[in-house]
Amino acid sequence: MHRAPSYEPVTWDITQGNWGQHQWTNPYKSQMLVGGIEEYGPKERGGTGQWSFNVLQYVPEKYLIGDLATSWTTSSDEIVFHMRKGVMWAPNERIGLEAREVTADDAAFTFTYNWHTPMGAGPLNMVESITATDRYTVTIGLKNFRFDWHFWLGCGAHCGIMCPEVVEAGIDDWRNQACSGPFIITDFVKGSGATYKKNPNDYHTAYYEGKTYDNLPFVDKLIIPLIPDETTQLAALRTAKVDAAELINYKYKDTLDETAPELMSHEYVHAISQYLSFNCTASGGKWQDEDLRRAVRIGTDIDDIGEKVYGRYIKHFFVGGPQSGFYTAIEDMPEETKILFEYDPELSKQLIADCGYPDGFSMEIAIDPKEVDPSDMAAVLVEQWAKIGLDVELVAYESAAHDQLRYTKLFPDCYFQGDGAGAPTELLERMSDCKDHAAGWVDPHYDELCNIGMRIVDLEEQEAFMKDVCLYYINPSSRIEMPTAYVLAYWWPWVKNWYGDTEIGFLSCQAEIMRMWIDQDLKAEMGY
C-alpha cells in the first residue's frame, strides 16, 4: 500500500464525485505530463533535489517532464502536445475493446469531455478549441493563457486520458475501465479496496544505481486498501500487513519508532492548511476593517497553535512552500507583512483599541466539531484572544451546514476551513468572483494583479510577478494562515527504490509506485 484512502470512489468518472477518487484511477491512467522525480527529485534517485515531490496536488511547470507527451509548447494563444507513439490501451473484453494505440483523438476527447463537466468548466474557460491536428498532436487553442494550465491539462485534476469506448460502455463501472498506465485494475470490492496488476506493455523506464530499466512496473501486483480508521492504518503498517504508507500523523512517530524500529521514514509538509477566515462582507460588519483584521492577526500566536496541535509544523507555507518560486520566507518579507507573523499581544490590544474597541468585543468562530485540527486550533484561539480583549464563543455546526457557510457567508465573525496551500491555483481562488472563499474579500486591485500574472507565459517573469502578488494577498489578512503540519511516509526496508516522495501530479504517486520493488528475500529474513 502506498496511500490508504479514507473513502471509496463515488464514481469511476474522475470529472464527477469528489477530488479524492483520483487516488483509485491514477494507477491505470496516463497523462500528458508528469513530475520528473528522477530528474529533479530525491538525490537518492539521482535527481537534483530541487523539488520534494511531496506538495499535495502540485508540481511546478519547470519540474515537469513528458509522460504521454514527448514534447510540448506553450504560448499566449495555444498549448500543443506532441504525443508518444506506440502507447497502447490494454484490451478489455467486457466492453469489446481490443488493444489499440493511444492517439491524439483520445486526448482531444478527454479534454473536451472535461471541458463540459461542472468540475472542469470553470478553469477550462481559458480554452477556445481542442483539436487533434494529426494522429500524435493535440492543439488547445486558448482564449487566454493561465499559469496553472498544466494543473488542468498536463498532470493535475482530470488529466488522465480517457478511452472513448469506456465512456460509451459506461464509465461509472470499474470493470469497464481501459488502462494505458503502469497498472491494470483487476478488482474492486466495496468497503475493502482495489487490486491492480502489472501492465506488461507499460512504456516507462527507471534509473537505478547507474542502470536504466524498461521492465516497469517492478511490482506484479498493487493493492490499495480502503482503511478509513487511523488506528487500523497504523496497525496494518506496524504489523507489515502493508509495505508502505504515507500521510501518517506526526503524533504517532514516537510510538512507531518504539514498536516498529525497523521502519524507514521521511518527513514532509502536508500542503493542506487550516485557515481562519474573517467575514469581510457587509454581513461581517466590523471585519471589513483591514486594520482590525491585521490587529487581531498580530495577537495570534501561530507557534503556540502549531506546538499544541501538531508538535512538528511549518509556520508559513502559502503558496507552495520554501522550494516554490511563489514563496517568500517570513524573514525575507517586508516589515508590513513580517509583523503579521510576530506575536505581540500588547501591540494587538492597542491596535484593536485604535480601531474603536478599547474594551474589546464578543465574537463567534464557526467550526465543524468533526474536523479535529481546526476545532483544536479554535480552542487555543479562545485562550489567546482573551488576552487581547476578545470574548470568543465557538459555535458548532453539522458538517453540511458548516460547509454551506463558506458559500453563504452567513456567519457573523470567523469561519474555520481547510484548504490547499501548495498550488498557485489557490491564488486565483481568492479573487472576488470565487464563491467558495469564505472571507468574501473583494479587492479589485488584487483581481487585476491576478489577471495580469496568470497570463504571463515566461516562467521566470511569472514567478517574480506572482511572488509579489502572494505578499499583497497576505497583507489585508482576510484570513489567518494556521501552521501547516509535518507528516510522515513510512516503508519497510524490503521496499526498494522509494524515498518518501509522494506527489507527481494530482493525488498521484504512480511514478513512484511503479519504480518500487519488494526484496522478498529480505522480507523473509526479517520474519515476514
Give the tags.
alpha+beta; D-Maltodextrin-Binding Protein, domain 2; 2 domains; 5-stranded mixed beta sheet; 4-stranded antiparallel beta sheet; 28% helix; 528 residues; Dipeptide-binding Protein, domain 3; 24 strands; single chain
Mean pLDDT: 93
At the first level of CATH, the class of the largest domain is Alpha Beta
Task: Work out the radius of gyration.
Answer: 24 Å
Structural class: alpha+beta
Ends apart, CA distance between termini: 16 Å
CATH architecture of the largest domain: 3-Layer(aba) Sandwich
Note the main sheet.
5 strands, mixed
User: Which stretches are low in confidence, meaning pLDDT under 50 for 5 or more residues running?
Assistant: none
How many beta-strand segments? 24
Instruction: Sum up the overall morphology in one term.
Output: globular
Query: What is the oligomeric state here?
Result: single chain
As a percent range, the share of strand residues is: 15-25%
Structure description:
With 528 residues, this protein is of the alpha+beta class. The protein folds into 2 domains: 19-251 and 494-525, Periplasmic binding protein-like II (D-Maltodextrin-Binding Protein, domain 2, 3-Layer(aba) Sandwich); 272-485, Roll (Dipeptide-binding Protein, domain 3), CATH 3.10.105. The protein is built from 19 helices and 24 strands. The protein has a 5-stranded mixed sheet, sandwiched between helices. Helix 10 (302-309) crosses helix 13. The model has no long low-confidence stretch (mean pLDDT 93).
